[in-house]
């Protein structure tokens, strides 16, 4: 045993059998030449030539060489992979383990369901849901969103066909951002929510790059689109196609790029109370005595301060078939909204006349009450949208003419079908 071997501090009985130093040194030189050509060791260089360089720095070579070996600068760059901190990994396992084992959740509309098979891609999962949700059938219209704590991601197209749901969930869980956010969040048990979104439907479809919807022909021409949809002054919608041989323009209907719109009126106020309507009818009937009958006008206002309806009878000049009022003395509009005009047609039918069309231009609700000579009069209601009229059901703006009655009355009534089925 060589003396230099005891410098490592091994007990003499347990000291390992090292190879001969001369042989090992020669082997080290060969290794250094191979590992770092920059050392430029010539074939005639010896171990002493290498080890006697005063400008060299020392590195420790593998344990099979039992002495320090000096090499010429520059020293090789050694990349060291840092192992995962076992303590941190153990803490994460305790902190997040119960969360990570929970399956992702499918949410769509009122449906909530755990996703048992996380190996599915988003698109494969879409296909499994088409029977229940046919709007998911067109893959080009579906975008998938994944919300997990504070992390939000989305997938569509090719990504939705490649990405597995479990793969995305695991990637989020492995991110430092997710873990840091979870530690700060009040919700310590968030679920990974997978939710499809239909980004376009037949009503209001996404418009292709070569199409456009424009408010004027001039805008359509400047756009350079091959197909243009333009609403016109005549109330029709036109499709304009520009081809090399010319420009084609025709009326179009049911164009799916346009939204579905239904004419109507959605009140922002409650319905006019039946007591108020009965008062107005009684007032109108007061102009039908003595063989002479006249029309009359009542304005229905909304009091913004007291949150209720009231009436205003303006100064007016009336006759059998006309009524002209002066609105100069109307209550201040800052407090009172002019909601409805009601006028009578005495014994005539409750139909709006040409005179009414000329008078009722303002945007509000209009009602006419006729056949006042009968026990039950007629009532017609319409809206004026800047002079464009639409008839609506009176029940939209008036409370129904019903009264409470004793519930015991029902005890005396048997519906024939119910009696037959009971037998």
Pick out its properties.
423 residues; alpha+beta; Ubiquitin-like (UB roll); Cytidine Deaminase, domain 2; five-stranded mixed β-sheet; 11 helices; disordered N terminus
Proportion of helical residues: 10-25%
In the predicted model, the low-confidence regions spanning at least 5 consecutive residues are: 1-12, 18-43, 45-73, 75-83, 201-205
- Structural class category: alpha+beta
Physical arrangement of strands within the biggest beta sheet: 13-12-16-17-18-19
CATH architecture of the largest domain, please?
3-Layer(aba) Sandwich
Q: Give the overall silhouette.
A: elongated
Largest sheet: 6 strands, mixed
The averaged pLDDT comes out at 80
Element string (H = helix, E = strand): HHEEHEEHEEHHHEEHEEEHEEEEEHEEEH
Number of strands: 19
Which value, in Å, is the CA radius of gyration? 44 Å
At the fourth level of CATH, the homologous superfamily of the largest domain is Cytidine Deaminase, domain 2
Continuous helix count? 11
Question: What top-tier CATH class of the largest domain fits best?
Answer: Alpha Beta
Count of structural domains: 3
Structure description:
The protein has 423 residues and is α+β, with helices and mostly antiparallel strands. It has three domains: 3-71, no CATH class; 86-198, Ubiquitin-like (UB roll) (Roll); 274-396, Cytidine Deaminase, domain 2 (3-Layer(aba) Sandwich), CATH 3.40.140.10. It is built from eleven helices and 19 strands. The chain has helices at 21-35, 47-51, 86-100, 122-128, 157-162, 165-174, 176-184, 217-223, 274-285, 354-359, 416-422; strands at 57-59, 69-71, 105-108, 111-114, 142-148, 151-155, 192-198, 211-213, 227-231, 237-243, 246-252, 297-303, 308-312, 316-318, 323-325, 336-344, 364-370, 378-385, 388-392. The radius of gyration is 44 Å and the shape is elongated.
């Amino acid at each position: 045993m060589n003396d230099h071997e005891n410098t490592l501090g091994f007990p003499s009985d347990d000291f390992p059998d090292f190879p001969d130093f001369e042989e090992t040194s020669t082997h080290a030189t060969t290794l250094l030449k191979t590992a770092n050509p920059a050392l430029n060791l010539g074939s005639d260089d010896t171990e002493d030539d290498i080890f006697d360089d005063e400008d060299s720095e020392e590195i420790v070579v593998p344990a099979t060489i039992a002495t320090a070996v000096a090499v010429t600068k520059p020293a090789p760059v050694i990349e060291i992979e840092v192992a995962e901190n076992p303590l941190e990994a153990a803490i994460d396992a305790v902190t997040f383990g119960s969360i990570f084992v929970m399956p992702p959740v499918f949410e769509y509309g009122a449906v909530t369901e755990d996703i048992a098979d996380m190996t599915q891609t988003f698109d494969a999962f879409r296909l499994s849901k088409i029977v229940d949700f046919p709007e998911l059938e067109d893959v080009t219209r579906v975008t998938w969103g994944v919300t997990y704590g504070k992390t939000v991601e989305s997938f569509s197209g090719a990504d939705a066909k490649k990405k597995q749901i479990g793969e995305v969930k695991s990637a989020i869980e492995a991110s430092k951002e997710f873990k840091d956010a979870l530690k700060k969040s009040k919700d310590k048990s968030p679920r990974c929510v997978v939710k499809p979104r239909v980004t376009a439907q037949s009503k209001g479809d996404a418009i292709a790059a070569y199409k456009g919807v424009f408010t004027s022909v001039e805008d359509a021409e400047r756009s350079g689109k091959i197909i243009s949809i333009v609403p016109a002054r005549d109330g029709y919608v036109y499709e304009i196609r520009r081809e090399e041989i010319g420009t084609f323009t025709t009326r179009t209907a049911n164009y799916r790029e346009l939204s579905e719109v239904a004419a109507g009126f959605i009140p922002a106020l409650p319905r006019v109370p039946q007591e108020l309507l009965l008062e107005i009818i009684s007032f109108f009937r007061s102009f039908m005595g003595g063989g002479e009958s006249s029309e009359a006008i009542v304005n229905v206002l909304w009091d913004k301060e007291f949150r209720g309806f009231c009436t205003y009878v303006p100064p007016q000049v009336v006759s059998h078939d006309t009524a002209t009022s002066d609105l100069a003395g109307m209550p201040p509009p800052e407090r009172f909204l002019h909601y409805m005009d009601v006028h009578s047609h005495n014994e005539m039918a409750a139909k709006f006349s040409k005179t009414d069309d000329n008078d009722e231009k303002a945007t509000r609700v209009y009602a006419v009450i006729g056949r006042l000579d009968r026990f039950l009069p007629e009532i017609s209601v319409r809206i004026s949208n800047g002079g464009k009229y639409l008839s609506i059901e009176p029940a939209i703006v008036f409370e129904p003419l019903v009264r409470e009655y004793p519930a015991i009355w029902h005890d005396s009534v048997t519906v024939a079908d119910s009696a037959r089925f009971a037998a």
